[in-house]
Amino acid sequence: MRITSIKLSILASLVVATLAIAPMASADSFTITANNLGLSGTLGTVTTTQNGSNVDVTITMSPSSALVAHGSFLGLDTTAGLVLTNSSLTNFSTSGMSDSLQHHNNIGPFTFSQLFKTSLSGGQQFPTILSFTVLNANVNQITGLGIHICVLDNSGGCARTGFATTGSPPAAVPEPSTLGLLGTGLVGIAGLRRRFLS
User: Fold this and answer.
1) What is the DSSP annotation of 157-178?
2) Which residues does 30 contact at the CB level (< 8 Å), separation at least 6?
3) What is the rounded distance in angstroms from the CA atom of residue 55 to the CA atom of residue 74?
4) CA–CA dist 41, 46 (Å, integer)
5) What is this structure's pTM?
6) Predicted confidence (pLDDT) per residue in 92-115, tens digit
7) Rg of the chain taking only CA atoms, in angstroms
């Protein structure tokens, strides 16, 4: 019986070590609600996902809203010492889109840790989904985001534009793959214990 306990302890230690070695993948999702247009409800969602030493950001707008891609502003609220530079944002999903870090950090009543002005070669576009990467960041260091939005008219053009922001995201939670790895290890331990007790 003592040998069984030792084997289970070793197996449990291996499972814990494997989880400690594997990086904890995490993602935050929060909503775009506050705006200067008087609109109510959720205007879109922002998802930030850890990807190695970078953070992938995806903005998905609700129906009847879009993003203003050219000559607009993208604000990020950061914490835990994250300082962004002119080369911190990359991999924009809208072709020809680029950004430049601004010296000021507010748009009207909205204030951000860092504010970028976006530009787009080839003319204005109003994408409903935009993704980009924040280099050398942790998902927990990005606490909010602000964007220029377009309220779409019946023809798909802009009826009016404004600025909207997110609230604070919830605490980071492990992605399903991490939870699956933990579950597999626990099932394995339970199976071995049952086998040795039989």
Assistant:
1) SEEEEEEEEE-PPPPPEE-HHH
2) 45, 46, 144, 166, 167, 168, 169, 170
3) 16
4) 15
5) 0.72
6) 999 999 999 999 999 888 999 999
7) 22
